[in-house]
C-alpha cells in the first residue's frame, strides 16, 4: 500500500527529467552520441615467414600468422566492414643486426606480405609500422652511436629506406613508430622524390614510454640489450611534450596522428584532437587488451562489454579510428558489436 501511494506523488517542480530520454531502446539508440563501427578499426597482424602457420603470441587469443593466413583473416574482416590492417613482422634472430638492415630488404617479410595483400585484396588499406626494433639486435627503434645511445639523424636514413621499401611494395600508409625527431619530414621528402607521394603517413606522434608494451615485445622477441626507450618515447608525466610532437608532425606533413597507449592517455587524445586538422587515432596496445582478457579469464569482469566500453571511451575522447587486437573478436560477436 505504501508503495502504491508513493507512485501517485509527482514532483511538480521537475521540468527537466533526463530519464525521459532513456525510456526505451529506440530512444536510447536514437540519441547515441558515440557509436562503434567495424570501419573504425585497424586490425593488427603479427606476420611470420612460411605458409599455413598459426603460432601462439604473447597476447591472449592472438596468433602470429603466415602471410597466407593474414590474407584469409583480412578477407573475412573486410567482408564484415573493417577497412584497414597494420602489419608487424616477427624477424628471426639471424637476420637482426646493429643497423636493422633487414628493415629495407625489398623481398623481406613485410614487403612480400604487402604485395600479396594488395594483389588479392586491393580494397583493404594496408598499413606498415616503420621502426627498427623488430630488426635490430639491440632492440632499439633507431641505430646506436659509439656510446650506445640512439643516434637521431643517422636513424632517419634507415627509417626512410624502410618506408620507401614498403611504399614501393604497395603499402597505402606507412606508420613511423620510432619517435626520432624529424622523421615525418624526412620520410615525406624521400617518398615524394621516389614518386610515392600517394603513400600516406600515419604518425605515432604521441607514443609514451609505457609499461603496456610487454606482450608486443615478447611476441616480436625484441628485448632491449641495454638502456630503455626514455630518450625518444614520451614520459607518461608530460602532456605538453606530446602536443609539441603532434604539432611538429603536422608541420612536417603527417596525414594522420596516433596516440599510444590509449586508455591511460585519453586526455592526450582529446587535447590533440582539439587542434589537429587531420584525423587522430588511438592504439589500444598489447597490455591494455591483455589485461581485459586476463581479468575476464579470472571472471573478474565480462570481456565483451568491457572491451566495448574501453573502445567507446576512446572514440568519445576524440579518436577517429582505433588500432585494437580486439577487432577480430568484436567482428565475430557481430550482432553485439554496436551498443
Ligand atoms: C615499435 C612498436 C611497439 C609497439 C608498436 N610498435 C613497441 C615498443 O615501442 O617497444 C607496441 C604495441 C603494443 O604493445 O601493442 N616501435
Explain this structure to me?
The chain has a single domain (35-338), classed as TIM Barrel, CATH 3.20.20. It has twelve helices and twelve strands. The chain has helices at 2-7, 25-30, 67-79, 109-120, 152-169, 183-193, 214-220, 240-251, 266-275, 286-297, 303-317, 327-332; strands at 41-48, 54-56, 63-66, 84-89, 125-130, 143-144, 150-151, 173-176, 200-207, 256-260, 280-284, 321-324. The longest helix has 18 residues, at 152-169. The radius of gyration is 22 Å and the shape is globular. Ligand PBG binds next to helix 7.
Supply Rg. Answer: 22 Å
**How do the strands line up in the largest sheet?**
1-4-5-8-9-10-11-12
- Major β-sheet, in short? 8 strands, parallel, barrel
Distance between the termini: 38 Å
Q: Write the H/E string, N to C.
A: HHEEEHEHEEEHEHEHHEHEHHEH
> Tell me, what's the shape?
globular
Please report which band the strand proportion falls in: under 5%, 5-15%, 15-25%, 25-35%, 35-45% or over 45%.
Answer: 15-25%
What CATH architecture do you see?
Answer: Alpha-Beta Barrel
CATH hierarchy, class:
Alpha Beta
| The CATH fourth-level homologous superfamily | Aldolase class I
Spans where pLDDT lies below 50 across 5 or more residues: none
What's the mean pLDDT score?
A: 93
Helix fraction bin: 25-40%
DSSP summary, beta strand count = 12
CATH topology call: TIM Barrel
Amino acid at each position: 500500500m505504501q508503495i502504491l501511494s508513493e507512485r501517485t506523488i509527482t514532483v511538480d517542480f521537475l521540468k527537466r527529467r533526463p530519464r525521459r530520454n532513456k525510456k526505451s531502446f529506440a530512444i536510447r539508440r536514437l540519441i547515441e552520441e558515440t557509436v562503434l563501427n567495424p570501419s573504425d578499426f585497424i586490425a593488427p597482424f603479427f606476420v611470420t615467414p612460411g605458409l599455413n602457420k598459426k603460432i601462439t603470441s604473447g597476447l591472449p587469443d592472438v596468433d602470429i600468422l603466415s602471410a597466407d593466413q593474414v590474407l584469409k583473416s583480412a578477407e573475412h574482416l573486410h567482408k564484415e566492414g573493417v577497412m584497414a590492417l597494420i602489419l608487424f613482422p616477427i624477424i628471426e634472430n639471424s637476420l637482426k643486426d646493429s643497423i636493422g638492415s633487414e628493415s629495407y630488404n625489398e623481398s623481406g617479410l613485410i614487403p612480400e606480405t604487402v604485395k600479396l595483400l594488395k594483389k588479392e585484396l586491393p580494397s583493404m588499406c594496408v598499413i606498415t609500422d616503420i621502426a627498427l626494433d623488430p630488426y635490430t639486435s639491440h632492440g632499439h627503434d633507431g641505430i646506436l652511436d659509439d656510446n650506445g645511445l640512439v643516434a637521431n639523424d643517422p636513424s632517419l636514413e634507415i627509417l626512410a629506406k624502410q618506408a620507401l621499401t614498403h611504399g614501393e611494395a604497395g603499402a597505402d600508409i606507412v606508420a613511423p613508430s620510432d619517435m626520432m625527431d624529424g622523421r615525418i619530414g624526412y620520410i615525406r621528402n624521400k617518398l615524394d622524390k621516389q614518386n610515392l607521394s600517394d603513400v600516406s603517413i600515419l604518425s605515432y606522434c604521441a607514443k609514451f614510454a609505457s609499461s603496456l608494451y610487454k606482450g608486443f615485445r615478447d611476441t616480436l622477441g625484441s628485448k632491449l640489450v641495454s638502456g630503455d626507450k626514455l630518450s625518444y618515447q614520451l614520459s607518461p608525466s608530460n602532456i605538453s611534450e606530446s602536443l609539441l610532437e603532434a604539432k611538429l608532425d603536422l608541420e612536417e606533413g603527417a596525414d594522420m596522428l596516433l596516440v599510444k597507449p590509449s586508455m591511460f592517455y585519453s586526455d592526450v587524445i582529446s587535447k590533440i584532437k582539439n587542434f589537429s586538422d587531420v584525423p587522430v587515432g588511438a592504439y589500444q596496445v598489447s597490455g591494455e587488451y591483455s589485461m581485459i582478457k586476463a581479468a575476464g579469464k579470472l571472471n573478474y569482469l565480462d570481456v565483451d562489454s568491457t572491451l566495448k566500453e574501453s573502445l567507446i571511451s576512446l572514440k568519445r575522447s576524440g579518436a577517429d579510428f582505433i588500432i585494437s587486437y580486439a577487432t577480430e573478436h568484436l567482428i565475430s560477436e557481430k550482432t553485439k558489436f554496436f551498443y
